[in-house]
């Protein structure tokens, strides 16, 4: 336990890299001796370059501790578990090229006045937490360290700051860290030996500076006279507005780049009145300092008073986060004409009014996240033309103000119900976790031509009321619509065209949207789509060709896929199908075989892609389900069956042939002639009528689509399989969306050589279907073409059919086809229907020659 604690302390305070708990060995030219209970410096090869000796029990380091290690550049002897640690005279004389020396956190360190002699190449010296007193700076311990750049004396007992004259010579000194000491005062003259030294960073944080004594500021003078402290960190000193004002007045004219006053106690806080908020005089003394960055975060400022920053005309960055700011008074930021970055996050702002950002002509970024902003009066951002980023995350905004066009606009975690009619034009637009319900808002957002990223995750998108179409040349590349309720939108056939114009979109998230089916053509137009996330929906079936060909990464995890066909995954390189509900029977073999040999990277562990049914296979990984038996079974059964059929059929045919021939010799002959004639005609017409766009229009009730697709489309339509030769037309694919339905039907009939009506119970109930039937039939009378093929599926009685006049008329003049009840007849049937499609039936009744000619010209 103690060990852990010490270890933790070591990591926090020492910030040392600890690769292993106990590692006492040479690692190439690195000697790694952490936690080795060493009491003396061990012997290491003379070419060692790094020597880590922290977390040991070495009490003493003296001139004989190290052999000559010419190449050593880094030595750590921090955090010894014994104290005091004594560094003797010339302890490091054998390490002439040492650059980094870490003696930090030794609790009590006794330094010989000559401890550091000879270290003329030392650049970094860490002496933090060693109970060192001001003598370390006031005496000449560091006289040889002519290369010193970084001196860390934080956490010691230094009570005053009057550095030795030797500091004049440390030309490269850039960073002095005196954090957590006890320096209570600093006046003109104290830092004379730092004069002319352009510091990068001077840290006097947490010293209770000017706190514990009554200051006579007039006598004190300018503590930074002739000093150039690039970044001056004075935070954590408990300064009130008064001390701040005195200090700023005192350093009047000293050039300072960056002032840090984080963790101050300025401001009256929330609900108090005894302390003041800074006002227009507080920072006035800095007017001539050329200050560019000011950090007064982590304090108690409640109200930003008028003109409080007016003298800081050069300021570019102002950090005010983590205060208690509730009020931005009128003209609070006046004078900050050069400010680029304003951080007001983590405050108590409840509303924005009074034109709060007045005067910020150059501002690029405003961070207002984590406030309580509910009301925004007027349009405070509208005139900030250079704005690139506004962060309003985690507020309580219900109504948007208007924004100028910008790069990044973050509005997540607010209470937006609708976007109103505000034009939002941002390259990166974050609207996650609001309460938006209308997918139509997306159409609206995509009116802005530059938007590239839109995040709408975790809203309530469940309806779609669009007033406008998405512009064609939009640049959207990333769209997150996860965790909404898009099922409710698409189930009502609303906004099915939402992605059609997004030709640049690369990433689309649709996870957790309760989707049970993917609407046909929903991804139509996503020609650049690379990554699609459909995880955590309820999809059980993926229609072939549903995904764009550019798709590379697909997440189908946590859906209800039963038995997907591998064809839909062909374009992918990464696929996640973990946690689905695979039904492991023979139909799944195509998938499992594909999975076994595919190059597609499968996400997740093998064990996460498992069967759910049948019960014997529940949770068994697909990779280990044995479905070998399937192939042989499938082959054997039909073989036995067909042998049986063959013999029986031969026998019966032989018998019936005799009977038929005897009784219907004449009819047989007529049949023969008809068939032969038809075959030849087919041949002719296949060429002559190729002018039609489609071979046939399939007319059926929408509810029968699944059946039609499996039974007919897959075997006839050329887009379903290369073996098929017909170009079919059907509503789900070929109808123009938005066009009047009846016009679609008429066009389909006119553009197709034949119209095949799949008459089922559903068909008869569907008014559109009967209408289409009627229309196709009317061509028989109006332009003398018999284009109608009627296929009855399922058991429909003659009576049921005859109830409908168009069907009655058809049945009276022509034969309809009946879908075979026996599966073995399906091929024959399909062959037959193919014939019918090709066959040109002319109405050859009692028409005269002239009429016949008209018919041929039409066709
Ligand atoms: C150091 O000493 C402690 C306790 O005496 C012991 O548990 C640990 O194993 C020792 N470490 C090494 C590297 O010898
Ligand atoms: C290091 O020690 C080896 C023998 O152990 C010696 O040959 C070599 O000269 C030494 N190198 C230096 C730089 O002292
Ligand atoms: C140097 O330190 C070692 C222990 O690390 C000690 O044994 C030795 O006596 C010391 N030498 C001198 C000269 O103090
Ligand atoms: C504003 O300050 C917060 C808190 O430190 C920080 O997380 C955020 O990144 C800052 N904003 C900007 C725009 O830098
Ligand atoms: C939004 O932009 C359109 C055209 O760009 C403009 O007609 C409309 O007035 C703007 N709406 C608002 C609220 O600025
Ligand atoms: C797919 O989505 C699931 C659920 O959100 C997630 O756990 C998984 O990491 C995703 N897979 C990939 C490959 O990103
Ligand atoms: C995967 O394929 C290899 C040969 O490519 C075969 O040996 C192995 O049995 C197959 N595994 C499964 C589960 O089908
Ligand atoms: C998998 O990759 C190898 C080598 O790149 C290639 O030969 C093989 O055809 C690929 N297999 C499939 C199914 O694409
Ligand atoms: C899968 O499950 C089996 C049995 O539970 C286990 O032995 C194996 O390590 C698991 N594999 C992975 C990759 O987790």
Sequence-ordered SSE layout with sheet pairings:
Layout: H1 2-14, E1 23-27, E2 30-34, E3 50-52, E4 60-61, E5 74-76, E6 85-87, E7 100-102, E8 109-111, E9 124-126, H2 135-138, E10 150-152, E11 175-177, E12 198-203, H3 217-220, E13 228-233, H4 241-250, E14 258-260, E15 293-295, E16 303-304, E17 317-319, E18 327-328, E19 341-343, E20 351-352, E21 365-367, E22 375-376, E23 389-391, E24 406-410, E25 426-430, H5 440-445, E26 453-455, E27 478-480, H6 486-491, E28 507-509, E29 531-533, E30 553-555, E31 574-576, E32 582-583, H7 589-597, E33 601-602, E34 611-613, H8 630-663, H9 665-688, E35 694-699, H10 705-716, E36 728-729, H11 731-734, H12 741-751, E37 752-759, H13 761-765, H14 767-782, E38 788-792, H15 798-802, H16 805-813, E39 817-818, H17 826-838, H18 849-858
Parallel strand pairs: 2-3, 3-5, 4-6, 5-7, 6-8, 7-9, 9-10, 10-11, 11-12, 12-13, 13-14, 14-15, 15-17, 16-18, 17-19, 19-21, 20-22, 21-23, 23-24, 24-25, 25-26, 26-27, 27-28, 28-29, 29-30, 30-31, 31-33, 32-34, 35-36, 35-37, 37-38, 38-39
Antiparallel strand pairs: 1-2
Helix pairs in contact: 12-14
The site of one 2-acetamido-2-deoxy-beta-D-glucopyranose has 3 residues, from α7.
> Globular, elongated, flat, extended or rod-shaped: what is the shape?
elongated
| Biggest sheet character | 25 strands, mixed
Helix content: 10-25%
CATH class categorisation of the domain at 695-858: Alpha Beta
CATH homologous superfamily (4th level) name of the domain at 695-858: Toll/interleukin-1 receptor homology (TIR) domain
Structural class: alpha/beta
Note the gap between the termini: 95 Å
Bound molecules: 2-acetamido-2-deoxy-beta-D-glucopyranose
The CATH topology of the domain at 695-858 corresponds to: Rossmann fold
Averaging pLDDT over every residue, what do you get? 85
CATH architecture of the domain at 695-858: 3-Layer(aba) Sandwich
Rg, rounded, reads 43 Å
Number of helices: 18
Instruction: Work out the strand percent.
Output: 15-25%
Which spans of ≥5 residues are poorly predicted at pLDDT below 50? 1-21, 632-639, 682-690, 845-859
Number of strands: 39
């Amino acid at each position: 336990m103690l060990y852990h604690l010490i270890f933790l302390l070591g990591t926090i305070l020492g910030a040392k890299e600890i690769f292993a708990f106990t590692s006492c060995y040479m690692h190439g030219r690195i000697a790694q001796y952490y936690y080795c209970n060493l009491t003396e410096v061990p012997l290491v090869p003379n070419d060692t370059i790094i020597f880590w000796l922290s977390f040991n029990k070495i009490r003493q380091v003296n001139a004989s501790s190290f052999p000559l290690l010419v190449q050593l550049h880094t030595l750590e002897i921090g955090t010894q578990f014994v104290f005091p640690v004594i560094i003797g005279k010339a302890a490091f004389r054998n390490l002439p090229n040492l650059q980094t020396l870490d003696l930090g956190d030794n609790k009590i360190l006794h330094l010989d006045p000559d401890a550091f002699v000879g270290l003329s190449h030392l650049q970094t010296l860490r002496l933090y937490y060693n109970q060192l007193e001001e003598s370390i700076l006031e005496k000449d311990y560091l006289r040889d360290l002519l290369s010193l750049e970084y001196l860390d004396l934080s956490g010691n007992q230094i009570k005053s700051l009057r550095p030795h004259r030797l500091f004049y010579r440390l030309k490269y000194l850039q960073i002095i860290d005196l954090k957590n000491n006890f320096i209570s005062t600093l006046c003109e003259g104290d830092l004379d030996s730092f004069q002319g030294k352009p510091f990068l960073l001077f840290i006097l944080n947490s010293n209770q500076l000017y706190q514990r004594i009554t200051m006579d500021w007039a006598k004190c003078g300018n503590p930074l006279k002739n000093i150039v402290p690039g970044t001056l960190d004075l935070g954590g000193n408990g300064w009130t507005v008064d001390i701040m004002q005195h200090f700023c007045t005192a350093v009047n004219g000293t050039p300072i780049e960056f002032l840090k006053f984080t963790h101050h106690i300025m401001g009256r806080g929330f609900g108090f009145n005894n302390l003041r908020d800074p006002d227009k005089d507080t920072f006035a003394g800095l007017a001539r300092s050329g200050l560019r960055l000011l950090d007064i975060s982590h304090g108690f400022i409640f109200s930003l008073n008028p003109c409080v920053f007016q003298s800081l005309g050069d300021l570019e960055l102002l950090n005010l986060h983590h205060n208690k700011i509730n009020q931005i008074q009128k003209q609070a930021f006046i004078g900050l004409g050069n400010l680029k970055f304003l951080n007001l996050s983590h405050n108590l702002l409840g509303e924005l009014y009074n034109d709060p950002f007045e005067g910020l002509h150059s501002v690029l970024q405003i961070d207002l996240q984590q406030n309580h902003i509910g009301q925004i009066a007027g349009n405070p951002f509208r005139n900030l033309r250079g704005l690139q980023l506004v962060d309003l995350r985690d507020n309580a905004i219900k109504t948007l103000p208007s924004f100028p066009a910008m790069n990044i606009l973050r509005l997540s975690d607010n209470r937006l119900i609708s976007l109103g009619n505000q034009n939002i034009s941002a390259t990166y637009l974050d609207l996650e976790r609001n309460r938006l319900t209308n997918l139509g808002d997306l159409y609206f957002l995509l009116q802005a031509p530059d938007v590239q990223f839109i995040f709408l995750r975790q809203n309530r998108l469940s309806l779609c009321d669009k007033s406008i179409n998405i512009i064609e040349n939009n640049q959207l590349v990333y769209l997150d619509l996860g965790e909404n309720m898009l099922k409710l939108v698409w189930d009502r056939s609303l906004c099915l065209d939402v992605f059609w114009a997004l030709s640049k979109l690369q990433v689309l998230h649709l996870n957790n949207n309760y989707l049970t089916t993917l609407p046909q053509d929903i991804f139509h137009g996503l020609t650049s789509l690379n990554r699609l996330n459909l995880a955590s929906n309820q999809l059980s079936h993926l229609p072939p060709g549903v995904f764009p060909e550019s798709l590379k990464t697909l997440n189908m995890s946590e859906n209800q896929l039963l038995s997907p066909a591998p064809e839909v995954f062909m374009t992918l390189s990464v696929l996640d199908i973990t946690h689905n509900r695979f039904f492991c029977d023979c139909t799944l073999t195509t998938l499992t075989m594909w999975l076994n040999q595919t190059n597609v990277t499968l996400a997740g562990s093998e064990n996460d892609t498992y069967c759910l049914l049948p019960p014997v296979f529940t949770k068994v990984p697909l990779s280990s389900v044995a479905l070998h038996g399937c192939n042989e079974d499938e082959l054997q059964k039909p073989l036995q069956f067909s042998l049986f059929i063959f013999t029986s059929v031969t026998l019966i045919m032989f018998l019936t042939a005799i009977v038929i021939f005897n009784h219907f010799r004449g009819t047989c002959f007529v049949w023969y002639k008809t068939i032969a004639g038809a075959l030849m005609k087919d041949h002719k017409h296949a060429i002559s009528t190729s002018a039609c766009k489609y071979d046939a229009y399939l007319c059926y009730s929408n509810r029968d689509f699944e059946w039609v697709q499996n039974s007919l489309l897959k075997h006839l339509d050329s887009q379903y399989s290369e073996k098929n030769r017909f170009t079919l037309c059907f509503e789900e694919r070929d109808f123009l969306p938005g066009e009047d339905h009846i016009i679609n039907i008429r066009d389909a009939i006119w553009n197709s050589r034949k119209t095949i009506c799949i008459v089922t119970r559903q068909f008869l109930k569907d008014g559109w279907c009967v209408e289409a039937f009627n229309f196709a039939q009317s061509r028989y009378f109006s332009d003398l073409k018999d284009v109608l093929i009627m296929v009855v599926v399922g058991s429909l009685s003659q009576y049921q059919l005859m109830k409908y006049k168009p069907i009655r008329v058809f049945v009276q003049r022509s034969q309809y086809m009946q879908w075979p009840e026996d599966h073995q007849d399906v091929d024959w049937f399909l062959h037959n229907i193919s014939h019918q499609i090709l066959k040109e039936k002319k109405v050859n009744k009692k028409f005269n020659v002239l009429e016949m000619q008209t018919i041929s010209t039409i066709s």
